[in-house]
Amino acid sequence: MVRLLLAGIDTLECAYYLANSANCDFFAFIGSIKEYLRQSKSRDSQHAKYGNMEFLVEPYGSGSGYPFILNNKDFRIQCGEFNNPSFHVKFSSESLWRDSPQVLHDRFIAWASSAGFEPFKQEGLSRVDFSFDYSVSTMNFDEDSMVTMSDKDSIHRENNQIQTLTFGKGDVVLRIYNKVAEINQSSHKEWFFDLWGQKEHVWRIEWQVRKETLKRFGIRTIEELGQKKKGLLKWLSGNHDTLRIPSLDNNRSRWPLHPLWVDLQMQIENMEEGDAGNQIEDCASIRSLEKRNVISVYGYLKRLAAIRSIMLKEKNTSLPEALKRLERQVRRIHDPMTWEMDVEKRIKEMEHGRW
Fold it and tell me: Buried b / exposed e across 157-181, counting CB within 10 Å, b at 16+?
């Protein structure tokens, strides 16, 4: 049994060509912040606001040559006054599932206008990841079931079970992977559970497509992405990669399509233009973060209990006793002024997507 739970764009990277007006001192503004961080030898980011957008200014530049990096809950922005393009923007995954790429694009352009910038050339997409999340009760396929134009593949297993199948390298990469395991082990995007309506047996089919292939299908801008993505996805799922049921036929392209791929092709054929947003609860990410921090604190409490038991040469310390000792020790080091400042700093970081 296979059932589509969610489909959309999980990653989008775009270059913006913006010219600053005579009264725009944006680069001088963030340059002074970065210089302050350098002189203070701080590794922490600095909260700032310019135009109608707030962000965190990072104390470092990018490996691709941009001197400034800004982050908030919607965007990761690499920029430089003398770079071409002057802005390279990665839209955040959560924002892409909550809003459409067009809404986020309009939001960025509105900020650019408020900051004193004007586009002198259309934006250019450099990467789009298309995702299809399926409820799959039993994984009855492997790498040999895939008929693909890609020359390279790789397999990641855990406990002798396939976790990720990867096909291709470069302009088109297909990944089929256990999304629940990926959330639990690395990304911690537990808000997907609410969107899916389940917490297990979810596999993601995901194509990572870069600039040259996007251009082949006439997709250079955000608007063209909404208009022409269906044609690209039909080619990806019908020509570039197909999941098959192996048979005795020596011609693999004549093997029957796997039911998962039959449904995927049907979903793409019925796809409408544009992207609709999803209702993601505002507190979903915060609740997930709170849960992970509670688990960490609980682990440290066990260590404190062991330390107390060794110090007092007693039997294992109970949870209530460990909590009391933790409270006493924390009160000894508590500084109200530092507490207030550090909590406020963490609030700003989390409001801007720094979990």
Answer: eeeeebebbbbbeeebbbbbbbbbb
Tell me phi and psi for residue 164, to 5 degrees: -145, 130
At residue 159, does pLDDT exceed 70?
A: yes
Q: Which of helix, strand or coil describes residue 224?
A: helix
For 133, the token pair is 């999340």
What pLDDT, in 10s, does the model give residues 52-98? Answer: 999 999 999 999 999 999 999 999 999 999 999 999 999 999 999 99
Interatomic CA distance for residues 174 and 135, integer angstroms: 18
Q: Which tens digits make up the pLDDT trace of 320-338?
A: 888 888 888 888 888 888 8
pTM for this one? 0.85
Residue 288 neighbours by CB under 8 Å, 6+ apart: 188, 189, 190, 191
- Cis-peptide, bond into residue 85, ω within 30° of zero: yes
Is residue 68 packed enough to be buried (19+ CB in 10 Å), middle (13-18) or exposed (0-12)? buried
β-sheet bridge partners, residue 157: 162
